[in-house]
Amino acid sequence: MGIGVGIVVGVPARHYGSCMSEPPIGVATIGLAACSSPSSSSVTTTTMPARPTRKLVPGDLPNPDAAVGTDQLPQIKNIVIVMMENHSYDNVLGMQRGRGDGFTLDKAGKPTAANPWPSGSTFAPPGPNAQVKAFPMPTPCQQGGHPYNTWAAFWTSYAGGRNDGFVQSQSGPVSMGYNAPEVLPFVNSVAATFPVCDRYFCSVGAQTYPNRRFLMAGTSLGLLYDTFPGEAPPNGTVFQALSAHGISWKNYYATLPSALIWSYQAGLPGFSSHLTKIDQFYLDAAAGSLPSVSMVDPDFDKQSEENPQDVQYGDQFLAKVVQSVMDSPQWPHTLLVWCYDESGGYYDHVPPPAAVVPDSVPPAVAPGDPPGSFDRYGFRVPAGVVSPYARKDYVSHVVHDHTSILKLVETKWNLPVLTQRDAAADDLLDSVDLQAPPAFLTPPRLAAGPDPGLLAGCLSTGPGTIPPAGYVTTS
Length: 475
Fold this sequence. Notes:
By secondary structure, the chain is α/β, with parallel strands linked by helices. It has helices at about 90-95, 150-160, 185-195, 210-215, 240-245, 280-285, 310-325, 400-415, 420-425, 460, and strands spanning about 80-85, 115, 130-135, 135, 175-180, 195, 250-255, 275, 295, 335-340, 385, 395, 470-475. A 6-stranded mixed sheet has the order 8-7-9-1-10-11, with helices on both faces. The protein has a 3-stranded antiparallel sheet with strand order 2-3-13, with no helix packed on it. The chain has a two-stranded parallel sheet with strand order 4-5.
């Protein structure tokens, strides 16, 4: 099911959509997904002229005519990366109206999405031919242990492209839950104001660590689970490339630096000097001293939005990070990318398309896991771009995954691509216009992050009845 390498080197100002019936001449169709019409009537669909293309392989530079490590996007001086955890696009943004490809609603304003609850599921169904409709989560808190996105759960949920196996999978009926926009006011506000990417997929249908490895190295090196093997990818990570070419970077963190998901990096000379506590991020942003690349991690015990956390703590964290960047003296030359690492087992209605296999390392499946390859993306996750150069009223339908962020960094500083996957990735620059005056030079006013302390403490009372009454049909 893998597809060959036919990678396009794009221009920063280009935009072409993954939903187009015919892409522009010279634009490769690798990974382009068929998709339904977006729900926004304000989507920008400008197509920029294509320019000559060439195929990339690991080790190639995005711009072969420039020296490695040299700046190719002078308008952008700082890239900030914020990756949250374990939610699908539909779970977070599915109810947003007029923006992106979310739920289809019935006349009563409720999602039409549903999954069968077969007798062979992990949880006993309430009756024959039971269906679980998409439902609003009763509280901002989540069930403990469910849903979750194992390799096996992904393939059961995917169901050959029907996306109707979520309830049957290990995730169970909670997989059909979603968060209403008022529960996560900030992420809905930023997605309604700045470009949102409604064809951004996680890199693999697996857990957190494999997906974060793809962000940093273009491969998980076979990893499917949240473990810490010590092997190094053949071409290293983006952090090593930045250090090798004198490009400043920091991983700001509260509990665990994401960079150490590639655990061998802990032993690299000088590596620990780039790991900085999260409080310093806010100080650096206010002082205008953020490095060229910032990886900003939430408190994984409280703010990452992984179950059974109260998701509003994560929304509060994301709001603080984004607002700090917009308030920074460095804002006029900053590009921030926010996303979630994987879907966590929550339902999404868009089948993931085929993906370029990153390397020759196969998935390290566990006993009882289905066989497979890294030739398909995982489910969609919420993602978007925040920058003064961001396009107004824009929804990106270009297929992206976490290696798109890697490709963005490589494009900016002309760094060698690391694997076949990031060689093929789009670099997210369709969401910005670097030729026109910046549309958001004056930062817009966004919704405030929620204050979970003002709510009834759902962490003590629990997530409520799941699925709620009225959202399961039987015959």
